[in-house]
TrEMBL record:
The chain crosses the membrane at residues 6-25. It comes from Candidatus Methylobacter titanis. This is Cell division protein FtsL. The gene is ftsL. The keyword RNA-binding does not apply. Part of a complex composed of FtsB, FtsL and FtsQ. GO terms for biological process: FtsZ-dependent cytokinesis.
């Protein structure tokens, strides 16, 4: 009779320990995932900053006066006379 009680009590303690270890393991895994999420969010923030800088650089390089300046200085192009310009209507 006492042996059965001790076996039942031992089984319950074993189940309790296994349950406690499972909780500890799942908490550890969730912390690892949280750390990875934080790293990915920091990387995303860096990419957003870089994207903004590239957009600003693109806007600067694509300005009309910048294009004309590069055409004059590097390509040695000149604006044609007004009477030599041909307009094409769609």
């Amino acid at each position: 009779m006492l042996t059965g009680r001790y076996l039942g009590l031992g089984g319950l303690i074993l189940v309790l320990l296994i349950s406690a270890l499972a909780v500890i393991y799942s908490k550890y895994q969730s912390r690892l995932i949280f750390i990875d999420i934080q790293k990915q969010e920091r990387a995303l923030d860096q990419y957003e900053v870089e994207w903004g800088q590239l957009q600003l650089e693109l806007t600067t390089l694509a300005e009309q006066n910048r294009v004309e300046q590069v055409a004059r200085e590097q390509l040695k192009l000149v604006m044609p006379l007004r009477e030599r310009i041909v307009y094409i209507k769609p």
